[in-house]
Every structure is written in structure tokens, then in C-alpha cells.
Amino acid sequence: MKLFKTSCVLFLLSFSVYSQDFVYGDLLPDAPELAARGKYKLGVQTMTFTNSNQVDILNSKDGKDAIYDRKLTVEVWYPAGIASTDDPITDYEEVMGTSGDPKRPLIPFTFKGRASRNVEVIADQNKYPLIVVSHGYVGSRYLMTYLTENMASKGYIVAAIDHMESTFRDAAGFQSTLLNRAKDIRFVVNQMADLNSKESFLKNRIDIENIGIIGYSMGGYGVLNVAGAGYSSGLEAFFGQMTGGSKAISPLISGNEKYTKPDPRIKAVVAFAPWGMTRGVWDAEGLKGLSIPTFFIAGSEDDISGYEKGIKAIFEGATEVERYMLTYENARHNVAPNPPPAESLKPGLPFDEYYRYAEPSWDERRLNNINQHFVTAFMGMKLKGEDHSKYLNVQPDSNEKTWTGFTNRSSTGMELIHKKAGE
Q1: In a 10 Å sphere around its CB, with 0-12 CB exposed, 13-18 middle and 19+ buried, how is residue 404 labelled?
Q2: Tens digit of each residue's pLDDT (9 = 90 or more) over 154-201
Q3: CA–CA gap between residue 142 and residue 373 (Å, rounded)
Q4: In the chain, how many domains are there?
Q5: pLDDT over 50 (residue 250)
Q6: Taking a C-beta distance cutoff of 8 angstroms, is the pair 299, 312 a contact?
Q7: Sign of the Cα pseudo-torsion (356, 361, 366, 369, in order)
Q8: Which strand (E) or helix (H) includes residue 59?
Q9: CATH number at residue 223
Q10: Mean pLDDT of 67-75
Q11: CA dist., res. 145 & res. 149, Å (int)
Q12: Which residue range forms the structural domain that includes residue 43?
């Protein structure tokens, strides 16, 4: 009977962790050390940036590029001037489904975050490193709030992009994502940096010499290109075939004279499950161009981006830069997003609304906490000069010995590899 009562208590404690009071990114009992939120309360604002006179690839014909303005909605989190006793909560408005897919109609829902909307930046006059975040195809700026909020609470200004024609609400032809992902990231980095010198709520508050970029799936495809990994001539040819001969993607191709060199202000890259290697997006020469320290995160059974011939091949081929690779054993592609929304569990919905977020072998909240831990360590080292080497320089196989920062016996099922430039 005593054992039964103890089991019931443990069950109830476990259930309370998953109750409606749980906000994405909150800690599970076995969360690693650096997963905890930082000391700052958060503000959040929605901004819109317009990149004028861009190639409208979806309306280009016969090799002649149409032109349009790309409006990008960006969510910005930042340390806020809120009393330390306050516990701010905000609602994020999201949708399930995919625009244009009759089998997956758009279904609005809301979920909670720990931030206050449109409040003042903290009045400490410090400058905070910038992190720009790029979602997958399809996705949204709210896809990784567990991480965007967490990093902002640790003294970063975090800007997550809604990539036009690539979100749940406005999904369109894939050629737009192929062309615009890296271009959008560069544009938003520059727009955010410009706020530091303009009359804005972030004037003189951004450390523009220390910028990080984070991308998931097609966002990973984008951030690697921004970091120097030019795309292959094979992608250039494929893009031309699918667009009737457009050369719009050529400036993103390795070796092209118009290819933009990496922005020296960007000091760190995190690439979750970057897409493209199995489709010939990169070749050996292009990967050698990756020149900004990169932390890769992958599932060993990724069936979207591929693992051995996909993400791991990118990691192995980027020989000119320091890089890490965290692998979740038996995970597939969803190693980056928030947990499945409660609405996705309702009967009658397409199964894919749940599986857009869920992993078959891992609890998504557990993945979120581990991601928070390692992204904190990596970004802290590269953007703030913090010494987190003990968390990153561990034996590769997590099953051999509990990794530093993890609760005893809790670091199972992972691998972390570190390679220096030249290896």
C-alpha cells in the first residue's frame, strides 16, 4: 500500500509538470543546468520590415524576373524594465494547418509565453548581443518560443522571422523559400542592427558586433549560406529548371562573383536539422566556405534532411571552421520546435498537425530543455565570452558517463562531437 501511495504521489507530481500552468520552455525535473531562464524579465514587440524590389519568383516567367516588395513580420524579445516580482504572461496567436491545403485547413489557437507586450527595454544602458531566428518550411516566428524567450531572458535581443510565402498562413511555392531564405536572414540582421542607430525602442541597446543566427530545417539551409556555405551549381541548375530559367539564385552559389561574404558581425550559428545535403544543395567546395563557428543539432533518424548523408555529411564537410554536432539518437526531424499544442490532440484533426511538432522517441519538452542548455553554452561562449567549455567538451557518448550539467544518470541517448578548423 505504501508503494502504491508513493507511486500515486509521483504520478501527480509528474502530471502537474504537464498541466496548463506549464509554459513552453519551463523546466522539467531533469532539465540540464543551463536550461533555466536567465535573470531578465521579458518584453516582446511585433515589427514589420519591407525588403523592396526583390525578385518575385512565383510570378516570374520565361526567365524574366518579376519584382515585388517582401514584407517580413518579426517578433522581437528583449530584457524589459519590469519589476523582478512580476511574472508576465502573454498570448501568442498561432494557427495549425497549411494555407492552400484543403486537407489541412487553418485552425487558430493561442498559447502562452512569459513576456509582456510592448513594454520598455530595461533601463540599465547595457548593450545586448543580437540573435536572429529562422523557422522551417512551413512554420512561423512562434515555432521556437521556448528558445527565443529563454535566450532573451539571458541578456540577448532575439528576433524571429515570419518568412513570407513560407509560413502556415501564406505557404506558397517552394522556389520562393529556396531563393529567399538566406536573403531574408541577411536583410533582418541588417534591419535589426540599424535599429541600434535609429530612433527606436532599441536605440543604442544592441551589441551589433556580436550577432548569432539560428535556423531550423529550411532555416538551417538559410543560416549556413549566410555563414559562408555557398550553394552548389546543381542547385542553381535545379532552380532554373523549376522556374523557367531564372538566374535569381545565382548570387547565392559558391564561386559566383556576386556571392556575399559572411557578415563579420555574425560570430555564431546554430543549425537545427539543416535541409539540403541529400538533394545536392552543397558540394565539397561550398561546405569549405562555412567560416563562422557552428553548432549542429540533429536526429539520427531524420527522414527529411537525412542524417549520415545529410546533416552529418554537412558537419564533416565543413572542415574550415570550428563546429559541434549534437545528435539525439532515434529522433527524426522535429528536434527544434515547441511541443505539440493541446489543440493538436483533439479528435478528428489530421495526424500531421500533431506530428508537425512531436518526436516518436523523445518528449519534446525534454528536447527543448536540452536545446536551451546547449544553445546557451554555445552562444554564451561565442557572443559574450563566457566560459562554458565544460558543458561542450564532454566525451562524445552520453551513455558512458553523465555529461557535465546534467542530473546524474539523465544524459542518455545523445552524442556530442567537437571538431576544430582543419579537422
Answers
A1: middle
A2: 999 999 999 999 999 999 999 999 999 999 999 999 999 999 999 999
A3: 20
A4: 1
A5: yes
A6: no
A7: negative
A8: strand 42-61
A9: 3.40.50.1820
A10: 98
A11: 6
A12: 2-419
